[in-house]
Amino acid sequence: MITWRNSYQPPNTQHWTGRVDLNALPERFHQQVHCIDLRQPLPSFNKPLIALVGFCCDEGIRRNQGRVGARQGPLALRQALSSLAYHRYDRILLDVGDIVAVDGQLPKAQQALADMVHFLLSQHIFPIVIGGGHETAWGHFQGLAQSGHSEVAICNIDAHFDLRDIPEDGISTSGTSFWQIAQYCQQYQIPFDYTCYGIQRYANTTQLFMRSDELQVHYVYADSIHSGIPFMEEFSLQRLLKDKTPIYLTICLDAFNLSVAPGVSAPQVAGLWPHQVLPLIRHLLNTKRVVSLDVVELSPPYDQQQSTAKLAALLVAECIQYC
């Protein structure tokens, strides 16, 4: 059943504007992206496809008592990406629009995102989901599961485990996604393979550390990364890179330092720096085992000089370059 159509907003070509160089060659993102309305038949292309799909949602962050604003993230990311130089000429980039959470209906929006991810994968299109809060991950994972990728190795670049209990009403928050995935894995008796890179000791309670240990989560403290330990020497990431399991890569912008990522729900004064994360992203994508990815928690109302949006755009551009 296609549920995403009821929550779907097609792409807007006016969101893709930017610098045009004097040589007039189409060398920037806004000149290369194809805006595709998926309510119409998918055009035929002669190269592999990558699709950006937005998840416009604040409900998970609101329910997690965070600073709302991530609903505006997909638009801000597109605008920041527009003028960057495009180098992946052996791939075609699509903007297929947004899944929009209507009137706070989070479960419905997450199911629509799941169906959208499944649809893209069924068309052999590599999805890059741009959020939205980290409640994005539960919808995204369900789409992977529908597509036969329930047994994925999850790599979460994040300050938080996001293993919080689900509220009594049964509706998730931005802090529950990976607990929901763990419960799904338990229900269907499949491995819960979860790695977190950039964990902040004081952003996670003792209960969350205990739960992560019970679930055998592999994690790397931000402090360890700051101390200069190369990520290739970390056991948890060696294991991830050497395994054969498909990878779902999810990047939460609150993993980064406040000075480069102020526009998030929960900024981190001791967060990571881009040069500590970009090599990991390249290594993961170079394995050719990443089947889907997302970049979440961009909150434009709290951004300064669009620095967080620019960081998010850099991460997306890097992912496109190496996927």
Overall tally of structural domains: 1
Number of helices: 11
Order of helices and strands: EHEEHHEHEHEHEHEHHEHEH
Alpha-carbon distance between the two ends: 29 Å
Q: Can you tell me the residue ranges where pLDDT is under 50 for at least 5 consecutive residues? A: none
The biggest beta sheet reads:
10 strands, mixed
- CATH class, anyone? Alpha Beta
Rg is 18 Å
Examine the coordinates and then state which fold CATH places here, giving the name of the CATH topology.
Answer: Arginase, Chain A
Based on Cα principal axes, name the global outline.
globular
Beta-strand residue percentage: 15-25%
Summing up helix and strand content along with how strands pair, one would put the structural category as alpha/beta
According to DSSP, the number of beta strands is 10
The overall average pLDDT, rounded, is: 94
Overall description:
Strand 6, helix 6 (177-187) and strand 7 form a beta-alpha-beta unit. The chain is built from 11 helices and 10 strands. The model has no long low-confidence stretch (mean pLDDT 94). The two termini are 29 Å apart. Strands 1, 2, 3, 4, 5, 6, 7, 8, 9 and 10 form a 10-stranded mixed beta sheet that branches. It has helices at residues 29-32, 59-63, 73-81, 106-122, 136-146, 177-187, 206-214, 222-226, 235-242, 274-286, 307-322, and strands at 8-9, 34-35, 49-56, 92-100, 125-131, 153-157, 193-199, 218-221, 247-252, 290-296. Helices cover 33% and strands 18% of the residues. The relative contact order is 0.16. It has a single domain (4-322), classed as Ureohydrolase domain (Arginase, Chain A, 3-Layer(aba) Sandwich), CATH 3.40.800. With 323 residues, it is of the alpha/beta class.
